[in-house]
Design a protein that fits this description.
about 280 residues, alpha/beta, TIM Barrel, eight-stranded parallel sheet, 10 strands, about 40% helix
Length: about 280
Amino acid sequence: MKNLQSTVTLNNGSEMPWLGLGVFRVEDGPEATEAVKTAIVNGYRSIDTAAIYGNEESVGEGIRQGMKAAGISREDLFITSKLWNDDFGYTSGIQAYGTSLRKLGLEYLDLYLLHWPVEGKYKEAWKALEHLYMDGQVIAIGVSNFQIHHLEDLMEGADIKPVVNQIEYHPRLTQEKLLAFCRENDIQTESWSPLMAGEALEQTELKEIAAKYDKSVAQVILRWNLQNGVVTIPKSTNKGRIVENSQVFDFELTEEDMQQITALNEDRRVGPDPDNFDF
């Protein structure tokens, strides 16, 4: 983990950047395009979107503008999108992947995820992702918001193990048992909402730790993610914060500070509960 281009090797041998840009709740249009372009120009190589975000077209435009401005090729980037719950099925899942590619203007994705563990449907949807992977249409496949029992159930009948489990993860929701399970099974964890939609930035304990390192609270949280072996994708549309969020490779938190941050856990979510959602 030396810089923004540093990667982790996934269980299928592909390389994923440790830090990327998330675009959840970024409206389709110039804002999304500019955020993605800004990130790429400033060294980001990983962009995470989803069909349900409704911004794949603008993200695709930002990717094209960013590549041109940064003088890089598609192979230098790691692009993720997700299969939405309404399309969980074999044929519908394959078709939805094609729709995402068309909207993004890409020939392939580096990572395609099942967005939520929809009961009774995620196994069939996973078969669609396995087909896409074995057919060479996608570099890697994984899941999002899966708990331990979901992963155990999925892997029991799967031909391919997920490479990634993208979960809500931040100092108030450390999910240590889930992280341990994923490590034991060589599934890379990835954090969405690492800053709790900004709520975590007001924590007194985190402000005190940040002052010690002359860093922002956001930088400390992102560094805590990385040192725990968790890939992270903070969302921002502000150029200054996009750049600031990337400046987390020039310091290291002490073990004491790491433990103090982890101790802030309250098992508190800012997003839906994967065991109790209705969409």
